[in-house]
Write a structure and sequence with these properties.
This protein has a domain of 127 residues. The chain has four helices and no strands. The longest helix has 127 residues. The chain is rod-shaped.
Length: 226
């Protein structure tokens, strides 16, 4: 088997492998597997499209390894094609129809080199795909982190406003308590002053009554004297 044919077989095999890793499609008309014991009546969970894509997507490391392998194979194929052409070119000069032999060897070399370079381009494409996915993953991570920071800042701002409101409410409550205590003190002081004033007035009245009685007694004694 020549190199171009082997490369074609390799590319077809890789295409089948990559296609199988990216999308798993059940064969139409395939018989359904017997349910597991105890699974009767249990509802099967249907995967969503993003979940299917996530499970079926080939691993980046696998793609990078495959791309590197393809590029190494392409480099080896191109080197082999050039080596083979050099050998065939030397044999052609020993034949009678040199030009026909050289043209055939050149066409074979071109086909083999083109196949090798196509394989190399496919490997480069896989590398670019992996890099693109890495860039998208980093962008998605940055978006998640940005959203998380915004949510954290919003939560912190809400907590700060709630704390400020709580402190303001406590200050207002302390002021109200002080005013209430002051009002209670003034009321109690006024009541005590009023009670003291009533007590003094009552004492003064009793003193006046006693003085009036003594005076009346003195007057009666004076009237009884000869």
């Amino acid at each position: 088997m020549n190199i171009s044919a082997s490369r074609a077989v390799a590319r077809v095999a890789f295409g089948l492998l990559l296609g199988a890793s990216i999308c798993f499609c059940p064969l139409a008309g395939a018989e359904e597997a017997d349910p597991e014991p105890g699974s009767e009546g249990r509802e099967e969970r249907v995967l969503t499209a993003p979940e299917i894509a996530l499970e079926a997507a080939p691993d980046d490391a696998f793609l990078l390894d495959k791309a590197a392998s393809m590029r190494r194979q392409a480099e080896a194929d191109e080197a082999a094609a050039l080596q083979l052409f050099a050998e065939e070119e030397a044999r052609c000069y020993r034949k009678f129809f040199v030009n026909d032999c050289l043209n055939t060897a050149k066409r074979k070399r071109v086909d083999q080199v083109n196949a090798a370079r196509a394989l190399d381009l496919e490997g480069r494409r896989l590398e670019r795909e992996v890099k693109r996915r890495e860039v998208e993953a980093r962008q998605a991570q940055r978006e998640v982190e940005t959203k998380t920071r915004e949510e954290d800042l919003a939560a912190q701002g809400e907590a700060f406003r709630a704390e400020q409101e709580r402190r303001a409410t406590e200050r207002e409550q302390r002021v109200a308590d002080k005013e209430r205590q002051s009002e209670e003190y003034r009321k109690r002081h006024a009541e005590e002053e009023q009670a003291r004033r009533i007590k003094l007035e009552e004492r003064a009245r009793r003193d006046a009554d006693r003085a009036e009685r003594r005076a009346e007694q003195e007057r009666k004694k004076a009237e009884m004297l000869p």
